[in-house]
Amino acid sequence: MAILHTLYQELLSFLGIRPLITLFQTGNYQVLLTWDGISSAIGPLIPFLLLLEAGRALVYKRFRIEDYKMPFFTFVFNRFLSRFISIAAVAFCIGLLEPLALFHTTLTWYWLIYGYIIWEFAHFIYHYLGHKVRIFWCLHATHHVPQSMNLSVTYTHFFLEAPYADVIRTSICILAGIHPALLFLIMFIDGTWGAFIHVGENLLKDGRLGFLNRIILTPSHHRVHHARNPLYMDTNFCNLLNIWDKVFGTFQYEEKEIDIEYGVSREMNTNNFADVYFGELYYLFKDVIHAPGLKNKCLYFIMPPGWSHTGDHKTARVVKQAYLDAQMQALTETPVVATKTA
C-alpha cells in the first residue's frame, strides 16, 4: 500500500493538481487572487495538454509508444535523482551574488521587461554553450534524442542539466540587478512557455501561430531547434523572445519544403535507456582515452561536438557549411540547352 500511495503522490505532483485539490478541500478561493494561487491554477496546463496530445494521437491512430517511452523513463529517473539540486543551485547563486549586483531592480512592469530581456540573454548563453562545448552537450543531448516532437520531450533532460543551466542563468540575472522575486516570476513564465513550445503535430499541426511567428519564439521555431537537418543545426537558442538569436545570427525560420528530422546526428539505439541518457558521456570519454597527448584530451571536453584531433571535423558548423555550399553549387550550375537555328 505504501508503494501505491507513493505512486499516487507522484502522479499528483506530475499533474500539478495537488494545490488545486487543497484549494477545493479548504474552499479558500480567495487564494486565486494571489501569485501562489495563479501559479497553482496554471501548473496543470502542460500535463493536461500532454494527455490531450497523446489522446488525439490514439484517436487518429498516430500514437507510438516509442515516442513517449524514453521521456517517461527519463522523467522517473530524474525525479528520484535530482529533485532538489536545481533549487539549491538557484538559492546558492542568489545568496552569493546578490550583494555584488550592479544595481537592484524593483517589482514593476518596466523592470519585468528589462528582467526578461536579461533572462533571455542568460538563457541564450547557457543554451549556446550546451551545443558548442562538448561536456555541456553531454548534459544537454538527452533532451535532443527523441525522434519526434511532443510535450513529453519537455521532461527529457539529463539530471545535471537543470543545475548547470540555472547556475548560469541565475548568476547573470542576479548580477544584472534582477530582484529575486522578479526572477522567480520570469522563471515561471519561461518554464510554462518553454514546455508549451514542445507541443507536437498531434495537437498543433502548424506551430507557427500566425503573426506571432514573427514576434516571439513559437513551437515552429523550436521544432527547427530540435531538428538534425544541416540547415537547422544550432539555431533558435532563445525560449520566448527571439531577440538574441537575431542579434547573434542564429535565428532560423522553418522552411515549408524541408521535412524536419528530429534527433541527434550520431547513430544510437533510441530504445536503450543507457544509450539515450549516458551515450554522449560514453563517446566523450572514449574519444578522450584514444586521443594522443594531454592537450588533445582536454580539447575534447571544451571543443564543439564533432571536433576531432585528426582534423576530420564533423561539427554542426562544418556540416551546415557543406550543405550550404552544395545548395549554392546546385543553384549556380545551369544546364546547357542546345538551341536549333533556322
From TrEMBL:
Topology within the bilayer: Multi-pass membrane protein
Key word Oxidoreductase present in the record?
Answer: yes
Annotated PANTHER family: ALKYLGLYCEROL MONOOXYGENASE (PTHR21624:SF1), STEROL DESATURASE-RELATED PROTEIN (PTHR21624)
Q: Which organism is it from?
A: Chitinophaga nivalis
Cite the Fatty acid hydroxylase domain residue spans from the record: 113-250
Membrane spanning segments where? 38-59, 80-97, 109-129
- The name of this protein is Sterol desaturase family protein
The protein's UniProt keywords, in alphabetical order, are:
Lipid metabolism, Membrane, Oxidoreductase, Transmembrane, Transmembrane helix
> What subcellular locations does the record give?
Endomembrane system
Q: Name one Pfam family in it.
A: FA_hydroxylase
